[in-house]
Amino acid sequence: MQDIVKTFPGVRANDHVTFEVRAGEVHALLGENGAGKTTLMNTLYGLYQPDSGAIYLGGKRVRIRSPRDAIAHGIGMVHQHFKLVYPHTVAENVALGLSGAPFIGPARVVERRLRELAARYNLPVDPKAKVWQLSAGEQQRVEILKALYRGADILILDEPTSVLTPQETQELFKVLERMKEEGHAVIFISHKLDEVMEVADRVTVMRRGKVVGTKAISEVDKPTLARMMVGREVVFRLSKGVCQPGEEALIVEDLHASSDRGLPALRGVSFHVCRGEILGIAGVAGNGQRELVEVLTGLRRPRRGRVVILGRELTGQSPRKIADCGVAHIPEERIRMGIVAGMSVEDNLILKKHHRQPFSRGPLLNLREIRRFAKQSIEEYEIMTPSPKTPAKLLSGGNIQKLILARELSGQPGLVIAAHPTYGLDVGATELIRKLLLRQREAGVGVLLVSEDLEEIMALSDRIAVMFRGEIMGIVPAAEASLEELGLMMAGERRAKEAA
Amino acid sequence: MRRLGPLAFERRLTPSRPAVLGVSLLAILAALGTMSIIFAAYGVPPLRAYAVIIKGTLGTRFGLMEVLRRTIPLLLCGVGLVLAFRSKFWNIGAEGQLLAGAVAAAGVALFTDLPPPLLLPAMFGAGFLAGAIWGMVPALLKVRLGVNDVISTLMLNYVMIYIVEWLIHGPWKGPTMRGFAYTDTFPRAAWLPLIPRSMVHWPTLAVGVGAAILVALLLSRTRLGYELRVSGESPDAAHYAGISFLKVSLVVMFLSGGLAGLAGVGEVAGIHHKLLPPIQISLGYGYTAIIVAWLARGSPLAAVVTALLFGFIFAAGDEMKVTLQMPFQVVGVFSGLILFFLIGVELLMYWRVRFLPKGEGWTGKAGS
Predict the structure, then answer these.
(1) Which CATH class is domain A2-230?
(2) Closest alpha carbon within chain B to A391
(3) CATH, range A248-490
(4) Could you report the per-residue pLDDT of B196-238, keeping only the tens digit for each?
(5) Closest alpha carbon within chain B to A393
(6) Contact between chains at B222 and A364 (C-beta distance less than 8 A)
(7) pLDDT tens digits, residue range A407-453?
(8) Is B363 at the interface with chain A, CB within 8 A?
(9) In terms of CA atoms, which chain A residue is nearest residue B11?
(10) Which chain B residues are Cβ-neighbours of A209 within 8 angstroms?
(11) Do the chains contact at B362 and A15, CB–CB below 8 Å?
């Protein structure tokens, strides 16, 4: 790929990017969220047309106008969010859109070759299984098989490990080794340094739409890569005081709840969080974490169980009642739920508190107080915004999150529930937000931290609970926790000895 | 960014105020241009047609008064719809809510023995309530049962049209009307005062302008207005913030329906002085008000301007009928064209067009 330029409204996602990958190598594309990695690969896969620049395959210039073109040229892509038809079987999914598949019973023809491929690359999947019954790791295998079936010589994997347990990740890496031996080229998009060091032969680092450099993995180490990625030195360890747990800020007893589809999502969850302590909830996405947070904040009704927050029985109360009792909620979907995208920064800063003193006096809003609070918050939390009147949707992800924290942490909460607080943020904002959470802990606030990022959980938590299929597999003190043990629990193995 | 010859098109996330204004004007001009073809098809030279219309409406006192008379119901319905649309409640039922207000006003005027000074206020009160209740029915249906608001508000228009027809043909049919499907004429005390030598019932006009100001204040200065804006912009954020969707929807439709009801009171108490067939009470004001509200883009004060614009179009329709012998339905065609172009050019607001000769690079700074 030569000199690729791609511009989106207000952002140049790819700025004269040149990137090459050789047959028989795993080439990592490393960069922070928003660095332009996915844009570049979507261009290669024909989802985007570059504004300028050219793509060469085997020395010949090609134009890739659509994913169909890309597949014809032997390029396959496994997206971060799988593109599978859930009620269909594995074989049907592979047959979908396959050129040359027979009109009647395409899946049957596919099945045999699928078994061959699965054996050759060590990707065990039952072709007759329905996709919705498969785990995330198995679904990913289906996506890889889909690409291999179509004769992909170049396989693009977009953040493939984000949905996997550590053990599943190891298995994926073995598959990648196997593909390398078969002469495929694998492009591995990631922002996780450890994985890149482990699996890649060469690495290309991107920052703000530009390529910082391409290196053989033997020439670099982790700190070097981090510096290339962020543009400055990065501290890997956060300084953290000794935990001094106080009384219980949150007690959850035998909580049951259903998912949106009416299936059991929480099955008897019990734990507690003390003041001055951070309890991390780890687990692969979709194991009930979302429902747990929703029940605790009043957005979802529990079917059974008890929630006591700051000494008050609040099971099944309204979101407003719970918020008014001193619960701060940093929601998972910050743009859809955490802010009102079309409204100003100022208006967004009083959301949830707009109905109380000092922002409201009777039925009227106190505009002067709202303005003062906005000015103060923007200064204190360093929210980069042209003005308090700017629509919140024009802010960057990090600044939106700072806005939400400024709002939620104002007025001294007693319990903070943070769901994926740093997901998708750049390193600077991530550091700041982690520091703010630690500062809450130091101030004697109970913090419940839900995250898929194990590194984050390990760095911040005092105790770690692991969720699997709506249950808590075990709770371990962070100091004793090992990645292996957490990984086993994430895959559904219950901890032998239940720790407090 | 895309290029077309020397022009560069660049997307933007929030349209600037001049862009909104310019694009809206462009839509109106395009509609006027297309109208020329219709004039020509009727054998009227377009320029002469426009000259006649302008002279007949803005050129005489009578014409100006006619514009104002048509503006009144459009303004009241339009302000109510702005409020509903701001909370993303798609109220297509202003026509029915207007008729509900007319019915309630007629009921009070004909069948109560209130002392004269109380009669008109009671009519306005009853008209507001009737419109409000008619508006809250779809709100309840939407929140409790998930019934689509567009369908339910639209269908309730027809229900109300037939209620009016039934009343004037049946129980309320006036004995003094010699077989016509009208009610009796209201007592004098139930007639609204007019600006002399015109049909402008000024109290309703004052109420309309007052409503626009009050709704603007409600939206920007009150807790309720804030909750309403949040619900409209992002239902998920509203839920997260503990804002009750039921309460907001009911209040919005109470006010929106009520304002349309007031428009109905004005029409029967100011102009007709009786209840008559629905198509004579309202010339589709409730429907045209949708365009008034859309063009006002969420601002109740802008609705004053857009209501005047459509008041002008209605008055122009009368002029076309009398002087140019064209059917009055041309008004519908014209309003339709404006809405059509308005929605059609919407996309343009989100693109910035710049002149960029060949060979020159893109020089905007990233991230701005």
Answers:
(1) alpha beta
(2) B14
(3) 3.40.50.300
(4) 989 999 999 999 999 999 999 999 999 999 999 999 999 999 9
(5) B13
(6) yes
(7) 999 988 999 999 999 887 777 788 889 999 999 999 999 999 999 88
(8) no
(9) A9
(10) 366
(11) no
Burial of B312 (0-12, 13-18, 19+ CB in 10 A): buried
Each residue's pLDDT tens digit, A164-186: 878 888 889 998 998 888 889 99
- Give the mean pLDDT of chain B: 89
pLDDT tens digits, one per residue of A481-497: 888 888 888 888 887 65
- Domain range summary for chain A, segments of one domain joined by +: 2-230, 248-490
**What residue spans of A200-262 are helical by DSSP H?**
222-230
Option in A11, A337, A364 nearest B236 (CB): A337
ipTM over 0.95: no
Name the band, by pLDDT with cuts 50, 70 and 90, for residue B1: low
Distance of CA B106 to CAs A214, B123, B208, Å? Answer: 82, 8, 20
- In chain A, residues with a C-beta closer than 8 Å to the C-beta of B224 are 363
Contacts of A329 in chain B (CB under 8 A): 240
The answer to whether the CB of B153 falls within 8 A of the CB of B90 is yes
User: What pLDDT is stored for residue B363 in this prediction?
Assistant: 43
Residue type, B156: L
Alpha-carbon separation of residue A192 from A187, A209, A217 (angstroms): 14, 18, 14
Q: Is B178 on the interface with A (CB under 8 A)?
A: no
- Closest CA relative to residue B301, chosen from B244, B192, B184, B220: B220
Tokens of B273: 């002085």
Residues of A in contact with B367 (CB under 8 A): 10-11
- At which residue do the structure tokens 């614009």 appear? B309
Dist. CA B314–CA B78, nearest whole Å: 15
> Is the peptide bond preceding residue B235 cis, with omega within 30 degrees of 0?
no
Q: Say yes or no for a CB contact (<8 Å) between B234 and A11.
A: no
Q: Closest-CA residue in chain A for B12?
A: A9
pLDDT value, residue B367: 34
